[in-house]
Write a structure and sequence with these properties.
The complex is a heterodimer of chains A (293) and B (277). Chain A has helices at residues 2-16, 19-27, 58-65, 67-100, 103-118, 121-132, 137-145, 158-181, 186-194, 199-210, 212-227, 231-235, 244-253, 258-292, and strands at residues 43-46, 50-53. Chain A has 293 residues and is mostly helical. Chain A has two domains: 1-56, no CATH class; 65-292, MetI-like (MetI-like fold, Orthogonal Bundle). Chain B has helices at 3-30, 46-53, 55-88, 95-107, 110-124, 136-161, 165-172, 177-206, 209-214, 222-230, 236-276. Classes of the chains: A mainly alpha (293), B mainly alpha (277).
Chain lengths: 293, 277
């Protein structure tokens, strides 16, 4: 009895909150510069007799024809991929160190990883504006030490954008890696070393393959949101930094072109479907594994 | 100390320096008398005074606090239901789709979530029960959709780590489903619901993109105010605001951590006692 009502509530939720269908619909609409909402209806009754369906592929053709959009998509993918690799390079040793740390320290170290996540994301990005600016802390230190004689332009460059993304998403990489590495059986490594294996070799042939699922989870948690990132490119990146999240934002807020913004959103979604599916399959496997234990 | 532990220690030190230097620099500069970042003008709390005198900022903060409170409460209710469905009702028709829908906002880029929710609200606006103007209510609904996913995941993982034999035993002894839920399931998932509430509250307080899409012309949440201020460059006032937020979050998280570990210890002591009897 109780089961029935939970399930039907769940199904109602699923069907009720389904805004993506509406985005898909509006991406096929025509832009209407006057009036509100600023797009034409797809279905219309003409003379109260005929149902007219207008299906406009023009927005998608426009995306293909104007190289701005294609460039933005490609550069977003590149930025997200590079940032993910850097997060992995910094996050893996940290997660490994925490997982191997003394139990007394482990919770404190984990808390230190999580703590920045609880403080405002926007303010943490803003903090880098103060550090990277021409008269910011980093330039002052560099000049005081005498490495450079005049300030290096770092703010509003791709460099600053990469720093911002890696910095903001690092905890998302560390946490799934930690929860994977913590479960490893240390005796496997000890056995390998006893049998004459060099520690680094043992790491490559035992720990690394065992942690692949953690690497995938962490990478997806960084890569997928980073592709559509808006705040970091806007505050730290240059004015010419092409990120698809920024393009979508400008189409909506500056050009008020809702159908094009919707088409960009759908294209981005299609691009991300495969990584999102990998992530969700992994999530379900994890849930299944913890249920079995 | 061998090479390996030296490497790991270095990784930790540099990693944490990377994570914390920006936050520490904001805190230090918030006490700087001078407006310029380049000059240290001496210790001063005048930017805190200036912040407290900024009516717009205070109004935005008050709005964000109200939105976050309603959001967190709503998200815990809906998210717990969804978590129960996913953890306790086995395979039902459409489960994969349901699970996918629930967890999608976890990774979905915010611009997509924001735009799609806005378009949904525009489509729903003619309905009689729906608020006419976008603002408090639309932002809150949008935030609930976003944050309930987090609550669902937290509650679900708590439920699947505990086996359902307790519930079955109670049911065998004749307890009705509602009674079982209230006396057994709810106390077990309560910690997960508390952390879900806090998580939802923080995410709502922090969100810029989704709130910008779903707010009306005259509604400004705190992140929207911060964003429009910092776009023009660094100001010590925002440093002061950041310091206040970091300090309150730290106190809260540390207190919650201490409380939870104490509870866990008590629970373990109870279990040992029960086992020895």
């Amino acid at each position: 009895m109780a089961k029935q009502s939970y399930v039907s509530l769940g199904e109602r939720l699923m069907l009720g909150i389904d805004p993506f269908v509406i985005v898909l619909k509006i991406s096929f609409a025509e832009t209407r510069w006057l009036g509100s909402p600023p797009y034409s209806p797809l279905l219309e009754w003409v003379d109260a007799q005929y149902l007219q369906i207008r299906f406009n592929l023009g927005n998608y053709l426009f995306l293909l024809r104007d190289s701005l959009y294609l460039d933005a998509f490609l550069s977003s993918l590149k930025v997200a991929a590079v940032s993910t690799v850097f997060c992995l390079l910094i996050g893996y040793p940290m997660a490994y160190a925490i997982a191997r740390a003394d139990t007394r320290w482990r919770n404190i170290l984990l808390l230190l990883v999580i703590l920045p996540f609880w403080t405002s994301f926007l303010l943490r990005v803003y903090a880098w504006m103060g550090l990277l600016g021409n008269n910011g802390l980093i330039n002052q230190v560099l000049m005081a030490v005498g490495i450079v004689s005049e300030p290096v332009t770092m703010l509003n460059t791709d460099f600053a954008m990469y720093i911002g993304i890696v910095y903001s998403y690092l905890p998302f990489m560390i946490l799934p890696l930690y929860s994977n590495l913590e479960k490893h059986d240390v005796t496997l490594l000890e056995a390998a070393v006893d049998l004459g294996c060099k520690p680094f070799r043992a790491f490559l042939s035992i720990t690394l393959p065992l942690s692949v699922s953690g690497i995938i989870a962490g990478s997806m948690l960084v890569f997928i949101p980073a592709v559509g990132e808006f705040v970091i490119p806007r505050l730290l990146g240059g004015t010419d930094s092409l990120m698809i999240g920024r393009v979508l934002w400008d189409e909506y807020f500056l050009n008020r072109n809702w159908p094009i913004a919707s088409a960009v959103a759908i294209a981005l979604l299609i691009l991300l479907v495969i990584p999102i599916m990998i992530f969700q399959r992994f999530q379900m496997q994890e849930a299944g594994a913890s249920a079995r234990r | 100390m061998n090479n390996r532990s030296i490497f790991l220690l270095t990784a930790l030190v540099f990693g944490f320096a990377f994570l914390y230097i920006p936050i520490l620099s904001m805190i230090v500069y918030s006490f700087n008398e001078s407006r310029l970042v380049t000059v240290w003008g001496g210790f001063s709390v005048k930017w805190y005074g200036e912040l407290l005198g900024n009516r717009q900022m205070l109004q935005a903060a008050w709005l964000s606090l109200r939105i976050a409170t309603v959001t967190a409460t709503g998200a815990v209710i809906i998210g717990t239901l969804a978590g129960l469905v996913l953890a306790r009702f086995g395979k039902f028709r459409g489960r994969t789709l349901f699970a996918g829908m629930v967890t999608a906002p976890l990774v979905m880029p915010e611009v997509i979530t924001g735009l799609s929710l806005l378009l949904l609200f525009v489509a729903l606006a003619p309905l009689p029960f729906f608020p006419d103007a976008r603002g408090f209510s639309t932002i809150t609904i949008a935030h609930i959709t976003l944050t309930m996913s987090y609550v669902t995941v937290v509650v679900q993982s708590r439920l699947s780590s505990m086996d359902d034999s307790l519930e079955e035993a109670a049911m065998d002894l004749g307890a009705r489903p509602m009674k079982v839920f209230l006396t057994i399931t709810l106390p077990i998932i309560a910690p997960a619901m508390v952390s879900g509430w806090l998580l939802a509250f923080t995410l709502s307080m922090d969100d810029l993109v989704i709130a910008s899409f779903t707010s009306g012309p005259s509604t400004n949440t705190l992140p929207m105010m911060i964003f429009s201020t910092v776009r023009r460059g660094s100001t010590p006032e925002i440093n002061a605001l950041a310091t206040i937020m970091v300090a309150s979050v730290t106190v809260f998280v540390v207190a919650a951590g201490v409380m939870m570990s104490r509870q866990e210890r008590r629970r373990q002591a109870d279990m040992r006692l029960a086992a020895s009897k």
